[in-house]
Amino acid sequence: MAKKVTMQKIADHLGVSKFVVSKSLSGKGGVNETTRERVIQAASQLGYFTQKNAYVQGIKRGSPPAASDRNKQSVLVLMPNIRFQTQDSLYWGKIVDGIALALDQEGLGMVIVSEQRADNFINILNPSGILGLVGVGQISTSLLLEVHRIGLPMVLIDHEDPLIPSDTVFANNVDSMSRLCNHLMAAGHKQLHFIGNIRYSRSFRDRWAGFRSALEENALRTPDGDDEMLLLEGMDDRSFREPFRLWMNKQKKAKAAPTALVCANDSVALTVSEILLEEGYVIPGDISVTGFDNIEDASRNQPPLTTVHVPKEAMGWAAVEKLLNRIHNPAAPLEKILISADIVHRDSVEGPADSGQ
């Protein structure tokens, strides 16, 4: 039987005092951020967070509510990236709609919190009135650490933390992107290029993995890992416009322009399409463009965008179901739920202009 991972074991592993470990894991001051991150990482690697009842404060929340008093309980929805992950977002808003519908069916309330600072977050949280947490999008390790510390059950949507274990819900990004690329190759495309920062999110990395595997399976060359189009900055505010424009013009002069651009999401694809039209390209006559997510603007674009439909409301609904199951079965193995996503064929794709490429 494996020995329990204690704070002392973590301290010995790092060569620091147990006091430093305790301070770091409790979220209290007195420890610099670098040391705190080292402690959290070591705790995760040693399996501290995956132990039953590890690192949980003695907060009395009572047993799961009966149907008669469920209206007195709420689920916390954490959306800390308030600039871009909001209820008004064409992507994130639909996920929140799915969460709200599922909670309403269960007679549960929803409290949306956009706090980004871990110390402020714990001050506003009243765990005795919260059943659990659904995290939406990118959330810092420090915030998730606070949730884990108080023993609040949680499910993350479109995000997973490398250190803090939890149930997660994603679209099946790898397989869906692979099918999309196979569709492009079946149309005759052999020069495909991925556009988007693969370090931006887990979903972007998975979509890149699906792109790369599809090309490798068809013996086509994939972009190098240091390709500038794989590391584009400015995904949220579209500040990648000029770097992409310069790159595309450079490819054109070198007669190495791709025949199809496979974008990490619809927002990137719509921006890319706008720039291509400004530069005199015809879509899809000169170049095909695809997106991912199927936000509402994708169908309104000219030409309408071929994309992958992510069932956003279903992801929110699945997260609520998983959270309620987790509350009733706290010792069950953690799960990563993948929701199937389908290609939506529209007018931004056709065969390459020169089928001999």
From TrEMBL:
Residues 5-61 form the HTH lacI-type domain. One of its GO terms (molecular function) is transcription cis-regulatory region binding. Keywords: DNA-binding, Repressor, Transcription, Transcription regulation. This is LacI family transcriptional regulator. The lineage of its organism: Bacteria, Bacillati, Bacillota, Bacilli, Bacillales. Pfam families: LacI, Peripla_BP_3.
